[in-house]
Amino acid sequence: MLGDNQTKISSMPNAQAFDSVRDSIRTGDIVFINGTKGLLSWLITSATRSTFSHVGIACWLYDFGSSSPMLFIVEAAPAGRRVVSMSHYGQRRPMTIVSSPVEWAVYRKELLDNTGNQPYGWLDLIRIGLRELFGIKARDFYGEVCSEMVAAVLNANGFPIEYTPSPGMLYRTLLARGCEVKAITTPT
Question: Cα(65)–Cα(125) distance, rounded to whole angstroms?
Answer without folding.
Answer: 38
